[in-house]
Structure formats: structure tokens, C-alpha cells
Specification:
two-stranded antiparallel sheet; 45% strand
Length: 147
Amino acid sequence: MPDSAAGGYPFVAFAFELRFDEQSFGGFSECSGLNLETQVQEYQEGGRNDAVHKFPTRTAQSNVVLKRGVVDRKVWEWFARAAQGRVEPRNVSVRVLDPAGGGVLMELRLRGAFPCKWSGPELNAAQSNVAIETVELCHQGLDWPRG
């Protein structure tokens, strides 16, 4: 994987794929929540009024939200097993693709991901929208490995 896009241009956000334990899980139209945040402990030193010391503590990760048109029961069944106490953590890869050639430009990996929330489609007979399901994944960490 190259370290930067060809010609120094940023990666595009519309060409991506998700893989679960190196297997395709169907196409997703949206992926959000790829966030890490290091929590900070503040310390006010006595006699020093011009600044507050800040020390890093833990890094917390956000849940990742995936959306796709309903095409099968795979996502529902994975969530239903977890809801029954049969949690099946998977390693999830989010791959940003080169839209011209389909090569992988960037890959982010979620360790030990499992579904912690599922939302079914919003149904409205007055509209002709695609039925979208949403799954929220909890995970044990986000990595951006070198290629």
C-alpha cells in the first residue's frame, strides 16, 4: 500500500470495502465512527497560574456505524447471536480503494469487533427509498498498519 495517494491528492471517501475476518460481508454504503480520542488528566500546579499541565491517560475508541441496503440476514443473525450471549468477535478491515484501479490505498483494522446495536429500515409507503439497516460495532481497538 502506498503511503500517499498518487500525485499527493487526498484519498476519496466513496470507494471503500469492508471485510470481516478477511471475508466479504456484503456491500456497505456508509461507514462512520472511525475515531480515537486520548483522554487527558489535568493537573494544576500550585503557584503556577499561567498554564495547566495535561497528561495523556487512556485512548478510547468510538463505536463504528455501518449502513447498507437490506440484502440478506447476515448482519441481523450476527447481532441476534450476540444479543443471546453468543458474542462472535471478528477482525474488521475498512479498505479505502483507488477508484481508478481498485487497489487498496489505506486499510484500517478494528480488533475484536462485535455488533452492539442493530437498527432496521425506516418504512414509509409514501416514499421509494431503499430499505437500509444499520449496525453499530463495538471493538477493542483501531489500527492503521503499514502496508
